[in-house]
Specification:
The chain contains 11 helices and no strands. By secondary structure, the chain is mainly alpha-helical. It folds into 2 domains: about 5-20 and about 140-185, Endonuclease Iii, domain 2; about 25-130, Hypothetical protein, domain 2 (Endonuclease III, domain 1, Orthogonal Bundle), CATH 1.10.340. The model has no long low-confidence stretch (mean pLDDT about 90).
């Protein structure tokens, strides 16, 4: 990556090495990503914690979730929309139309499409799952605002890059688009403890 893109090379040198740590609890990760959608981190964490308290401090199994009274779920702070999203996920897992472990064996696009079929999981959430849970190295979340802002700053563009322009920039990153993406995100953070992925 450093050889093919000198701008990215400077960012990699500045950020330094990153450590990859993937969590293998795929179901919990998807539930968490649904809860975190369109919320500030602190608010989402509070709701996730209250939700877990309904089940003794853990994320419920799909079956447990499906047998929980909706009012109880509302009491934890979940919106009716998110309750329905998690319900759709739980039903698919229970009836076997979705197998999160099987996604590990699928090509990126097929895995993205299977996740995208679940209500409330759009392409961006599916891409984050592939990057951070499955450790896929060549996922390019072109619609991620933070990534587009980082690219604009790094490549000194006048405006946020649109999809076509962004894909042109990223041609040099394959087959490591996910890693390039991560470094660009990190380039926008204030310096802190060593980067950890």
């Amino acid at each position: 990556m450093k050889k093919s893109d000198p701008i990215l090379a400077r960012i990699i040198d500045k950020v330094g090495p990153v450590k990859f740590e993937l969590d293998d609890d795929h179901y919990e990760a998807v539930v968490g990503s649904i809860i975190f959608q369109q919320l500030a981190g602190s608010a989402a964490k509070a709701i996730l914690n209250r939700f877990k308290q309904l089940y003794g401090g853990r994320v419920p199994s799909p079956r447990e979730y499906l047998s929980t009274d909706v009012e109880k779920l509302r009491g934890s702070g979940l919106s009716p929309q998110k309750i329905s999203y998690i319900k759709d996920l739980a039903e698919r897992l229970e009836n076997g139309t979705l197998d999160l472990k099987r996604l590990e064996t699928l090509p990126d696009e097929e895995a993205l499409n299977e996740l995208d079929d679940v209500r409330g999981i759009g392409r961006w959430t599916a891409q984050m799952f592939l990057i951070f849970k499955l450790g896929r190295t060549d996922v390019l979340p072109v619609d991620d605002l933070g990534l587009r802002k980082a690219a604009r700053k790094a490549y000194r563009l006048r405006t946020l890059p649109k999809r076509d322009r962004f894909e042109q920039l990223a041609e040099k990153w394959h087959p490591y688009s996910s890693i390039s993406t991560f470094y660009l995100w990190k380039s926008m953070e204030k310096p802190e403890a060593p980067a950890k992925w």
